[in-house]
Amino acid sequence: MPAHDPARQPADEGVLFAAARRAVEELRRIEPVTGPLAGRFQAAGHDLYLVGGSVRDALLGRLSDDLDFTTDAGPDEIERLVKPLGPIWTTGAEFGTIGVLIRERDGTEHRCEITTYRSDVYDPATRKPEVSFGTTLEGDLVRRDFAVNAMAVPLPLDVAAPLVDPFGGLDDLAAHVLRTPGPPERSFDDDPLRMLRAARFAAQLGFTVDPPAIAAIREMAGRLSIVSAERIRDELSKLVLSAQPRLGLELLVGTGLAAYVLPELARLRETVDEHRRHKDVYAHTLTVLEQAIALETESPDLVLRLAALLHDIGKPDTKRIDGGKVSFHHHEVVGAKLTRARLTALRYPKDVVEDVTELVALHLRFHGYSAGEWTDAAVRRYVRDAGHLLPRLHALTRSDCTTRNAAKARALAAAYDALERRIDVLAEAEELQAMRPALDGNEIMTALGVPAGPIVGKAWKYLLELRIERGPMSREEALTALREWAAEQGLAPE
Questions:
Q1: How many Cβ atoms are within 10 Å of 208's Cβ, its own excluded?
Q2: What is the CA radius of gyration of the chain?
Q3: CB 67, CB 54: distance < 8 Å
């Protein structure tokens, strides 16, 4: 593939100039890091380039403190050169990568990874790279996933020095398009995960994917099946945590990649019938995700976003049409089982699996309250069952309203406002977040004259249910209730 496709129009010069100016400003900002680093390589007779995503982000004016470099020096030489600059790590040495943490005088830390020019050869069966060190910068750049990530800046920084851009990455950056440096079929065959990266970068950057790359993804989506679950999980998480995950998710579904990542998401389209007797659950899900993101108060929340994405995946298996009406009874129960299975298969940590599964299982609980019929006991149980997930459950439940009926939307919002007020009132009076019986295990054993064992656990659960139903109880009230329960169970307290 030529460096520039003649059918593609070059980007507007004003846009390119603005990008270059932003890049220079960003690169000057990190000169306290790149200067000493480049000086050591230059003195040793080696080239050093800022490369890949670091160059792309510099051009976008969003350079992070994690920096990537490439060089003609071998990994042993890299280690020798960077060792005086700060703590190093060599976990990627077999792939030619040495890392060093460089601190500026103001305390700012930069994680710098320097990699020997690469020229990977991929195993035809597993597509795992067999590392082969290269000899040229262009040979290193051509192996990268997209042209916007295949640019380099020579160091030390010289504002008059041209950007190394052999594959038209700068034009693509200005046009907001993702295009492979070479033929997309070869790139995706070398590393099928690049197809998923296309969706991730679309979500992170708000870019579109080049039509030939889209066609290749549709044709080759099945190749993703040879990629490990862990690598797929990591890319999916980055996509979901991005600024515009909907763009990436629509790409996954539209190209068929979702069948190998989140098949349950693609199946949501099965809930749409020809007579439009129910809203489009797939479109609803993407809207819920966007609304959940809008309610985040701090950093992006993976658990909340995954729960929003998966909350309705039980609907295809529970869809029923009776008398022209569509129902999805118990879809939250089925959805929770499917969620646990999918996230486990993707090797998510156990706490993430448990939290997302619980949110999916609980996401409909509020709708029993919307008619205003909940008792204090029901409110307590809602808080108890949600536990530490209560703030996320609030956000998920509010996000799940996508009706176009303004009056209905206002009524649901008002009902949930009322529920949250009741929770606040009860929490202030009863310490809801720490609900427990008035008697602990030792006191139960003493009162009943029994040793530790199943009976104590059953008694404790009984007293907890009483606490939820009646509210706070004194120790004396709890002892009376415990003795009554014991008599019903045929126990004879001493």
A1: 16
A2: 29
A3: yes
User: Residues for the chain: how many in total?
Assistant: 494
- How many Å apart are CA 118 and CA 138, to the nearest integer? 10
pLDDT tens string, the chain, 494 residues long: the values are: 334 443 455 555 566 666 667 777 888 888 889 999 999 999 999 999 999 999 999 998 889 999 999 999 999 999 999 999 999 999 988 889 999 999 988 888 999 999 999 876 666 565 566 667 888 999 999 989 999 999 999 999 887 777 899 999 999 998 999 999 989 999 999 899 999 999 999 999 999 999 999 999 999 999 999 999 999 999 999 999 999 999 999 999 999 999 999 999 999 987 765 445 556 899 999 999 999 999 998 899 999 999 999 999 999 988 888 777 888 888 999 999 999 999 999 999 999 999 999 999 999 888 766 565 678 888 888 888 888 999 999 999 999 988 778 888 888 888 888 888 888 877 765 665 567 777 787 888 888 888 888 888 888 887 887 777 777 778 888 788 778 888 888 775 54
Please count the other Cβ atoms lying within 10 Å of the Cβ belonging to residue 377. Answer: 15
Query: Following CA atoms 384, 385, 391, 393 in sequence, which dihedral angle do they give, to the nearest 10 degrees?
Result: -150
Cβ-contact 53, 67 below 8 angstroms = no
Cα–Cα distance measured from residue 416 to residue 344, given in angstroms and rounded to the nearest whole number: 32
For residue 156, is the peptide bond before it cis, meaning its omega torsion is within 30 degrees of 0? yes
Phi and psi torsions of 88, nearest 5°: -120, 160
Q: What does 304-350 look like in DSSP terms, one character per residue?
A: HHHHHHHTTTTHHHH-EEETTEEE-TTHHHHHHHHHHHHHHHTT--H
Tokens of 366: 């509020």
CA 356/CA 382 separation, integer angstroms: 17
Q: Is 438 helix (H, G, I), strand (E, B) or coil?
A: coil
Q: What is the number of other CB atoms lying within 10 angstroms of the CB of residue 134? A: 19
CA count, 13 A, side-chain hemisphere, 151: 23
Strands 152-154 and 48-51: antiparallel
Q: What stretches of 222-298 adopt beta strand conformation (E)? A: none
Q: How far is CA 475 from the centre of its chain?
A: 46
Q: Where are the beta strands (DSSP E) in 104-172?
A: 109-116, 121-122, 129-130, 152-154
Q: Write down the pTM of the prediction.
A: 0.82
Strand duo 88-89 + 66-71: pairing:
unpaired
Tokens standing for residue 110: 């930069």
Closest CA to 101 of 56, 57, 67: 67
Distances (CA, A) of 134 to 27, 70, 92, 94: 26, 11, 16, 14
Instruction: Give the containing element (helix H, strand E) for 97.
Output: strand 97-103
CA dist., res. 84 & res. 41, Å (int): 12
In contact, 90 and 98? CB cutoff 8 Å: yes
Distance (Å, rounded) from C-alpha 464 to C-alpha 471? 10
